[in-house]
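Methods — Computational structure assignment.
A single polypeptide chain was analysed. Its primary sequence is given first, followed by the predicted tertiary structure written as structure tokens.
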Amino acid sequence: MNDKNENAHVHPASPGRAAAKVALIPGGVRGIGRALALRLGGEGWTVAACYRRSEDDAATLREDLGRLGVPAWIVRADVSTAVAAAALVREAEDRFGGIDALVNCVGAYRRVSLLEESPEGWNAMFDDNLHPVFYLCRAAAPGFIRRGRGRIVNFGMVNAGRLAAQPFVTAHYIAKAGVLVLTRSFAKLLAPHGVTVNSVSPGFIDSGGISQDELAQSFKQIPAGRMGTPQDAVAAVCWLLSEEARYVNGADIQVSGAWGV
């Protein structure tokens, strides 16, 4: 990741645009992450985001943010490794003089019977969903502590805290339960430094990460009578990033239309 990387580009701010807060959104080019990047960019934030394989989605996001006049840095990075996660945070801080919010949107979803799960598939769920949250929060914490402020939002999974049987998404579910523990642990450690760490746990969100067949089968289980949208999850994140939520720390907000309650 450097200035010569063809995948990294910073759009200049529009004339008259005030200095913006900076949001780092790993996994921010698709689904909820993309919707969040566009929402924050429209509200005056500078957006830094990374992706692993979604080059076409990254290019589209760059174009959309560019049309909005949003200063943005979109780069390829595999944050399932500690070295890459630390490098991403360090370069974002160097480019923008620090970051104000870290929103961890990374995470793949895999549906397979536990009896048919492979060791590789099992490990991948933790590499994709749990380990990056630890690496990125740990890397961002020193900068937040130095500045005496910051926001971290992680993504869990609805009802992960209940530790219920999940025979077809077992590794994913365990990883998301781990995210809740990490969130609360970082919240307790960083609260004395003016940093909040919270999580948002979506239910069924039509964001492209779940097959249409699975969404259709689950629709009748949702008391709200409709599928969630990326914007529903984004609204919760934006509130946690706001000054209104400055005393909310270690919380988990379920965005599920009362599904699974």
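Note: The longest helix spans residues 170-190.
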